């Protein structure tokens, strides 16, 4: 119980910090991979380099929680998609420390509403052993300039 409280406190601090970042654009996202769901908040994904903090939201099947910090680099950016990769470090109640190299494709399918994107992400991850993780989700960029 103490660990769940600590993880929740860390995520709340990250949310508060991102709210006070002047006029920077922020994105929020919900991602799903197998029995794990992630909720994320991060910097503007249209910049060349952007970051994101995620919390692994436990549920009935997987009651464990965790947090992740990701740094991404946009290799290719167009009006329709962004191709990005980066590094991920995290902590979960199951595996303790984990690290990975996520590769992602953000599709922006609505011409008049580029803030909305579909995220396909996958890559190798180390969490007690090497494996591959894949996520699918939606992301929305909160901004005034689009």
From TrEMBL:
Assigned keywords, A-Z:
Aminoacyl-tRNA synthetase, Ligase
Q: Which GO terms describe its molecular function?
A: aminoacyl-tRNA ligase activity
The answer to whether UniProt assigns keyword Ligase to this entry is yes
Top-level taxon of the source organism: Bacteria
Q: What is this protein called?
A: Glycyl-tRNA synthetase
* Organism lineage: Bacteria, Pseudomonadati, Bacteroidota, Cytophagia, Cytophagales
């Amino acid at each position: 119980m103490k660990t769940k409280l600590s993880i929740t406190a860390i995520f709340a601090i990250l949310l508060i910090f991102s709210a006070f970042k002047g006029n920077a654009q922020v994105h929020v996202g919900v991602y799903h991979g197998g029995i794990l769901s992630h909720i994320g908040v991060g910097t503007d994904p249209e910049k060349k380099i952007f970051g994101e903090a995620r919390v692994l939201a436990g549920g009935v099947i997987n009651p464990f929680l965790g947090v992740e910090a990701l740094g991404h680099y946009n290799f290719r950016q167009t009006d329709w998609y962004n191709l990005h990769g980066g590094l991920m470090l995290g902590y979960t109640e199951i595996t303790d420390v984990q690290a990975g190299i996520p590769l992602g494709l953000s599709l922006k399918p609505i011409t008049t509403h580029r803030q909305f994107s579909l995220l396909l992400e996958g890559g190798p991850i180390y969490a007690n052993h090497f494996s591959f993780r894949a996520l699918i989700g939606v992301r929305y960029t909160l901004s005034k300039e689009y």
